[in-house]
Structures are given as structure tokens and as C-alpha cells.
Specification:
This protein has one helix and twelve strands. It is an all-beta fold. Strands 1, 2, 3, 5, 6, 7, 9 and 10 form an eight-stranded mixed β-sheet that branches. Strands 4-8-12-11 form a four-stranded antiparallel β-sheet, with no helix packed on it. β6 and β7 form a beta hairpin. Keywords: Ion channel, Ion transport, Membrane, Receptor, Transport.
Length: 181
């Protein structure tokens, strides 16, 4: 059966929205949750163990990528912003702080009364729905934002979505979107 991988996202900032380039740049904390019993360990006090990016290179982690991304990077000041927490029962939390610039097709035919919908979709790169199942770990509460203020736009709301991806080699996608005007 497919490995269930829960996702939650904390949006730190929307760094820019470009009407000219039809894209947006967002910094976020992307957290993955799954279980790998091979990594379980005995513990008298049920304490987790936390590791940095060195262990991530030695174990299986989900190969999630941002669909329609133009650029992205994991922050690395002063160290790579990657954290892996392993619990005694084999449950895993894998967290990365990433900035991504993604496509946002905008329609200005109703300017200045237009609204734009931008989204950021996540998929597994190599696995389909028979291998890996992405889902929002806490439903709509899986997408969190602090109050984000933009100089040129007003953000109406953020929302989470999920569905099947028929246009790629993968089967399941999840996404988040926001509406601006």
C-alpha cells in the first residue's frame, strides 16, 4: 500500500508578486510526516531524537517538489535549514525552510477591479499514487500563515487543496493557493 506522507506548511512571507514576470516568491516551512519502522528505537522516556541534514542524505525521504516552480532553494545560513526528528515508534518529522518562486498566471482584463489566484502545488517527483500518498496532515489547518501585508496587494484568503495530477508521471498532488486584489 502507498506510504502516507502528511504535509503541513507555515507561510513565513510572500516576498514578491510580479505582474511582469507573472510569478510570486514565497518563503515557507515545509514539514513532512511519515512512519518508517526501520528507524524505531527503544526509549524509556519516549523522547524523540533530532538530527540535521547529514542524516537526511542517508535515509529515504519523500521526493516532494513544487510544480510550476521557476526557482527554489533551501535556506543555508548558518547551516542548512533542514531538521529531521525521529520518534521511538518510527514516526518522522522532516522540516525544511525554503523559498520558492512559482508561476502565477494573471488576468488583468478587469483591471483595476481584478482579482488574481495564485497557487503552489506539491507532488512526488518519482512516485505515483500506488507508492506514496500525499495529504494535508491536519486538513485545512495544515496551512498556516501569520498576518501577511503586501504593499501593492490585499490578500483575501489562503486555502489548501488536493487532487489527482493527470498531467505528470505522478498521481497525487496537494496545493495551497491565495487570492489577491
Amino acid at each position: 500500500s502507498p506510504i502516507p506522507v502528511g504535509i503541513d506548511v507555515q507561510v513565513e512571507s510572500i516576498d514578491s508578486i510580479s505582474e511582469v514576470n507573472m510569478d510570486f516568491t514565497m518563503t515557507l516551512y515545509l514539514r513532512h510526516y511519515w512512519k518508517d519502522e526501520r528507524l524505531s528505537f527503544p526509549s524509556r522516556n519516549n523522547q524523540s531524537r533530532t538530527f540535521d541534514s547529514r542524516l537526511v542524505k542517508k535515509i529515504w525521504v519523500p521526493d516532494v517538489f513544487f510544480v510550476h516552480s521557476k526557482r527554489s532553494f533551501i535556506h543555508d545560513t548558518t547551516m542548512e535549514n533542514i531538521m529531521l526528528r525521529v520518534y521511538p515508534d518510527g514516526n518522522i518529522l522532516y522540516s525544511v525552510r525554503v523559498t520558492v518562486t512559482a508561476l502565477c498566471s494573471m488576468d488583468f482584463s478587469r483591471f483595476p477591479l481584478d482579482t488574481q489566484n495564485c497557487s503552489l502545488e506539491l507532488e512526488s517527483y518519482a512516485y505515483n499514487e500506488n507508492d506514496l500518498m500525499l495529504y494535508w496532515k491536519n486538513g485545512n489547518d495544515s496551512l498556516r500563515t501569520d498576518e501577511i501585508v503586501l504593499s501593492q496587494f490585499f490578500i483575501e484568503h489562503f486555502h489548501a487543496s488536493s487532487g489527482l495530477a493527470f498531467y505528470s508521471s505522478t498521481g497525487v498532488k496537494i496545493g495551497m493557493g491565495f487570492r489577491i486584489h
